[in-house]
Target: Ring-1,2-phenylacetyl-CoA epoxidase subunit PaaA
Amino acid sequence: MNTTRSSPAETDGAEPVLQQHFDATIARDQRIEPRDWMPEGYRRTLIRQIAQHAHSEIIGMQPEGEWITRAPSLRRKAILFAKVQDEAGHGLYLYSAAETLGADRADLTGRLIEGRQKYSSIFNYPTLSFADVGVIGWFVDGAAICNQVPLCRSSYGPYARAMVRICKEESFHQRQGYELLMTMMRGTREQREMVQDAVNRWWWPSLMMFGPPDDASPNSAQSMAWKIKRHSNDELRRRFVDMTVPQAEKLGVTLPDPELRWNEERGHHDFGTPDWDELMRVIKGDGPCNDQRMERRRTAHEEGSWVREAATAHAAKQAAREPKGAVA
Ligand code: BYC
Model:
């Protein structure tokens, strides 16, 4: 059977068979690959999620990147440099995964800088002290691990495979954040206060990273049916809380939620409700740093135009030099 990717017009009446094949592949927990036929909605949903994920990695370089020149030691500077560079790599794998679905990378970047595509709300909060670098590693990369490890089993092959390496690196990032905080907690009273202050500011925005609650998440049901998402937003948020509470105890910090307590009956923590209005405001562009993040991204894009021009000219020159029919 021809399961090569086609637009509905090209399937010429064969679509029900192709749809059945697609449904059976999903039901068997097998992967959809770029050349397989897929429903347009599946393709659009993946491009939306993967592009937003890629944009988040690239914008996510900014809050921590601001501290590279102010890192307190050469060791911390080298670590932070490597981490921020990893985020750039994650963005590039993800843009490549989106390209396998027929998306154009320049178009996706254009959509981001024109504000037509989203990126994670978490990167619209300021990094006020070096403790924020540790807390981002602990909370933000910790949340990323909870959200992204299940994406290694996502039904779309290139996305799932990209996530394997990304998750390994996120895991390393989370540990460097926690290790930095442990060092600060063994330091002076001022250092311990800096950590607690950073924890207070980042806790609720980190819970919001998982998206709106399930009953207000328009995409979840379909994305879970297609096995793009494996767990709901609330389920992953709950896992993150359960994972983080004992780590906070060990570190000696207080999570800023008076409703947080262990529920013996449910075998999970109860916790308070994030401010969903705040999440919606930040997603719509009205967070503390949205303007700054977008301005910097636009400037970087404009300043990088000579690199893109040079790379295009170099590729054209190489292509002209290659003998006709040569295989690279
Ligand atoms: N921020 O129906 P829903 C990282 C949007 S990178 C902004 O639940 P879905 C890291 C959502 O897009 C972190 N927007 O959507 C990087 C949708 O809007 P549209 C990024 C959000 O897709 C550097 C609408 O709200 N991680 O960890 O089923 C350094 C309704 O939501 C947010 C990923 O991208 C938000 N927090 O579920 C360190 C992971 N939440 O598109 C770390 C992959 C929701 O309909 N993505 N929205 O206009 C996902 O897992 C899912 O896309 C989400 C949302 C769970 C985020």
About this structure: Residues 1-11 have pLDDT under 50 and may be disordered. The first strand starts at residue 261 and ends at 263. The CA atoms of residues 314 and 320 lie 10 Å apart. The longest helix spans residues 157-185.
